[in-house]
Specification:
223 residues; mainly alpha; hpI Integrase, Chain A; 9 helices; globular
Length: 223
């Protein structure tokens, strides 16, 4: 027996839902994606070379002068100063092996005249016994808290603004001053141990020495 659909019922057939096409106006609006907030970069703060010279001039302690000189010249963090060991120092070659933290590259640092002289003066007082080069009064490795307090003390003595009385400013000074003297970013990256060159590039944004030099050359070339 064959069943026949009554006339007109075939017009009432409703296809499955996934076959129904709705006009665009009936479609639900796409989810609104909020733009990602840009991460605010920390402002790099550093001392001018004149301010730094004034800071060094008021440090009476032989130990502190050596610590501040090496921290600045090698671009060291406060925590890295206490890690320097006498065995890391090679007086004949005027080099010291620096152990860097936070993923930075450790390696030999070539001492320049000022820091080599300051370190020799301190070692005459300290003695030649093995262990940390820089010790506290309790004969323990110098800690970052002590270094920050010393920076506040000496910084206040020469009128350095409070926001710049922070020991890590010395590392910022090292990078910005080297770039200002015309050293390339890759060479500065190697000197201060940055693993990522983008970290060094942040310092390049705050110095205009190379741009000034280029502008001077262009004055003669572009007429």
């Amino acid at each position: 027996m064959i069943f026949e659909m009554p006339a007109g019922l075939d017009q009432l057939f409703i296809p499955p839902n996934d076959d129904i096409l709705l006009p665009d106006d009936d479609l639900p609006p796409p989810p609104v994606q909020k733009p990602k907030a840009k991460r605010k970069r920390k402002e790099i703060k550093f001392l001018t070379e004149d301010e730094l010279a004034r800071l060094f001039s008021v440090i009476p302690s032989v130990r502190d002068r050596a610590m501040f000189q090496i921290a600045y010249r090698a671009g060291l963090r406060a925590s890295e100063i206490g890690m320097l060991q006498l065995r890391d120092y090679d007086p004949k070659a005027a080099k010291i092996f620096v152990h860097r933290l936070k993923g930075s590259n450790s390696g030999e640092h070539h001492l320049v005249r000022e820091e080599a002289r300051a370190l020799r003066a301190w070692l005459k007082v300290r003695g030649s016994f093995p262990g940390p080069i820089f010790l506290s009064k309790q004969k323990r490795p110098i800690d970052r808290t002590t270094l920050h307090l010393l920076m506040k003390k000496y910084g206040a003595a020469v009128g350095i603004p409070p926001p710049l009385r922070h020991f890590h400013v010395l590392k910022h000074c090292c990078a910005t001053h080297l770039l200002s003297k015309g050293f390339g970013v890759e060479r500065v990256q190697d000197w201060i141990g940055h693993a990522n060159i983008q970290s060094t590039m942040e310092y390049a944004k705050v110095t205009n020495a190379r741009r000034d030099d280029m502008a001077q050359q262009l004055k003669e070339m572009w007429r």
